[in-house]
Specification:
Helix content is about 65%, strand content about 10%. It is α+β, with helices and mostly antiparallel strands. It has two domains: about 30-230 and about 300-330, no CATH class; about 235-300, no CATH class. Strands 1-4-2-3 form a four-stranded antiparallel beta sheet. The longest helix has about 40 residues, at about 80-115. It is flat and about 80 Å long.
């Protein structure tokens, strides 16, 4: 037995192969099928909006503008208009919620459950380093989430553009939900959910708290993006007379009164001077000569989107680095196969 064990021809026990993308996809196969199903359903809805629903609604609005000058004999396809609005609302709302769904899954199923039940710790003792475990669990979902969300964002942009200027009730480009679902910020929010789920799970080691933490990271990042976006690119300021009131359509930044010295002050909310003599007296006391409106026109859409996306991706990078740092701290003494501590 001893000679056999020492023989150079004796078979050696093979170390378990380090799991990769195939292992992760098999482990989370139900989630993969659900993700593909969600992307397919939303894509079908957006394509339906992009083509038949937009054309039908635009035709109904043309009919309304021609036939409804006399409301007693007003006939138009109201169902097409309502159907377009309903499907737009549902698909846009679902795409807005998608980063939160990704965050919930990442915090609960992808990371939190394995850390709470000890599955991850067991894998770290079987030849899979903690760093590689985390990297695999981040990289593979990142590719799938970015591809799926990016496809839906592109379809939403095409759908919205097809109805812009043709449908009277179409959402403006600066509508909060449309603003993000038409651009890459939604993809960045989804990646925030993944990174936030990883960090939350590594910090809390429990499924439900990790889920809540991931949702919190996405909500906070979206709030931060909404607050900072108007200030990430130089805005346009439009000045009008007191009689004309405010002018300028776009993503608002600031508004108020202009004094005779050119200073900008807060508007007491009286209204245009043509509204009443009281407003004239109020503005005279303030030495106001006009209104100013600082806003972003539609031509600023892509600069705003790209700068905000870069900011959100910086948050994603920070969350990811923090997750790896927390992993290293928490696994510094975890034994590996062979008796060495994990790194």
């Amino acid at each position: 037995m001893t000679a056999l064990a020492l023989s150079p021809d004796a078979p050696k026990t093979a170390r378990p192969a380090a799991p990769g993308a195939g292992w992760l996809l098999r482990l989370h196969r139900p989630a993969l099928y659900v993700w593909i199903g969600v992307v397919v359903v939303l894509a079908v809805g957006l394509v339906w909006l992009w083509g038949p629903l937009t054309d039908a609604s635009a035709a109904a609005w043309r009919q309304y503008r021609v036939d409804c000058t006399d409301y007693r004999n007003c006939h138009y396809d109201q169902d097409s208009i309502v159907r377009y609005k309903s499907v737009y609302m549902y698909t846009t709302g679902a795409l807005t919620a998608l980063p939160f769904v990704v965050a919930a899954w990442a915090g609960a199923a992808l990371f939190g459950r394995e850390l709470e039940h000890g599955t991850a710790q067991l894998a770290w003792t079987q030849g899979l380093s903690p760093a590689r475990w985390l990297a695999t669990k981040l990289i593979v979902p990142t590719v799938l989430v970015a591809a799926g969300t990016g496809l839906l964002v592109a379809l939403h942009r095409l759908m919205w553009s097809a109805g812009d200027g043709r449908i009277d009730t179409a959402k403006s480009w600066y509508d909060n939900l449309t603003l993000h679902t038409n651009g890459p910020t939604t993809v960045a929010f989804a990646l925030t959910g993944l990174a936030g789920g990883a960090l939350g799970a590594l910090l809390l080691r429990r499924t439900l708290p990790a889920l809540m933490a991931a949702l919190g990271f996405v909500a906070a990042t979206r709030f931060l993006a909404d607050q900072l976006m108007p200030h990430l690119w130089p805005a346009v300021t439009h000045v009008t007379s007191l009689a004309d009131g405010y002018r300028g359509s776009g993503l608002g930044v600031d508004s108020g009164l202009v004094t005779s010295t050119g200073a900008h002050i807060a508007d007491p909310g009286c209204g245009a001077t043509s509204a009443s003599s009281t407003c004239k007296a109020v503005y005279a006391d303030l030495d106001a000569t006009g209104f100013y409106t600082t806003y972003h026109p539609e031509s600023h859409y892509w600069p705003l989107q790209l700068t905000t996306t870069a900011l959100v991706l910086a948050v994603v990078a920070a969350l990811t680095v923090a997750a790896f740092v927390q992993l290293r701290r928490s696994t510094a003494t975890v034994p590996r196969a062979g008796g060495k501590a994990a790194v």
